[in-house]
Amino acid sequence: MQKTAFILASLMATTALPATGYAATELTMWYHGAGNETESSILKSIVSDFNDSQDDWEVVLESFPEDSYNDSVTAAALAGNLPDIIDVDGPIMPNWAWSGYMQPLPIDKAKLDGFLPGAIGEWDGQIYSVGLWDAALAMMTRQSYLDKYDIRKPTLEEPWTAEEFDDILVKLKESGDFEYPLNLGMADAGEWYTYAFLPFLQSFGGDLVDRSDYQSAEGVLNGEAAIAFGEWWQSLFERGLAPGPSQDPADHQNGFINGEYAIDWNGNWTARAKLDAFDDVVFLPAPDFGEGPKIGAASWQLGISASSEHPEGAAAFIEFALQDQYLADFSNGIGLVPATQAAADMSDFYKEGAPLAVFYGLSDAQGSLRPVTPGYVVETSVFQKAIADIANGADVADTLDGAVDEIDTDIDRNQGYGHNG
């Protein structure tokens, strides 16, 4: 009897061992949104859902303030301490991939069918990252302004032309009803300058770098089209049509709502505050300066570090996070454009007939990626300085020539950033 009891106890203990001894493999994840409670809460919920959905992997999340995030990743890469899953700003991704911080994302491309182009991060023919949202820009104004000043409401099919847009700004300026007819957000220096203003240069026919081989900015950043852009850009400030780089940040944030500006060139993340303030806000497409209307595309995306020993687990989490319901949750929480139409249809603000639905169409039709090159991290800083200098009165041609020299020198110093084999 005692022997039988001993054998049964032994069998029970042996049977229980796999259940009590098994532990999910830990996956570390870094995220840039520590300062945004709503965004962080949604991501934590996705992490919790993933961890509860299976027994193989456990994602452990660590969030950083956005201002210090990129520096933290760079330092960790140099020290060999990167996490498994990293958050990356779309235009920065090619530099991190080229620098060896990231590895290609092992995900079936069919899983990304229907995603906005700006939400998919590709470099060197491979997908490295994917976003849970995108962002879009619009000319924001009020229908009552359009009616009062007899201004045509543009459409995606028939945007304002360059001449028409200029005439509108002059008419609004001459009315005397506004401090400035147009707010460009010049107080928001940094990446905003490239995201928001490079599309104007592209619509003129210029660019930040020659995208045929990414080996030079010559001819595209200082050619005839770029000079025409620079002269128009400078004239906006000379004629008092927009506040310059010395703009008070408070005016940039509140000027449109306070009636100081007639038109606000801004992102969809600012739209809800305007809708709360007015019942006649309209979100209009970018003007066409000759080569088609364009707006910036690509926002924060998820990818896998090069040092991760568990890329299959990291990819499983990223694929799990791409569910339309989660994309809609982010849209509802932080107001950004859902990455798929299905998610937009589920969201409160982007479904058909909703006040922000127009932004999905703008992103899909006018979204233009910043140069997809590791050299972008230098090119964007050069561009930001150049257009600030031009806004402050610097000679257009000389400034653009100087910017080209800086960019080309950097490309040469880095042996073409991998574009030339």
From TrEMBL:
Keyword Transport in annotation: yes
Q: Which InterPro entries match?
A: SBP
| Stretch forming the signal peptide | 1-23
Kindly name one Pfam family recorded for this protein. Answer: SBP_bac_8
Q: Which GO biological process entries does UniProt record here?
A: maltodextrin transmembrane transport; maltose transport
One Gene Ontology term, aspect cellular component: ATP-binding cassette (ABC) transporter complex, substrate-binding subunit-containing
Q: Which GO terms describe its molecular function?
A: maltose binding
For this UniProt record, the keywords arranged alphabetically read as follows:
Periplasm, Signal, Transport
Its family?
Belongs to the bacterial solute-binding protein 1 family.
Under which name does UniProt file this protein?
Putative ABC transporter substrate-binding protein YesO
What species was this sequence derived from?
Martelella mediterranea DSM 17316
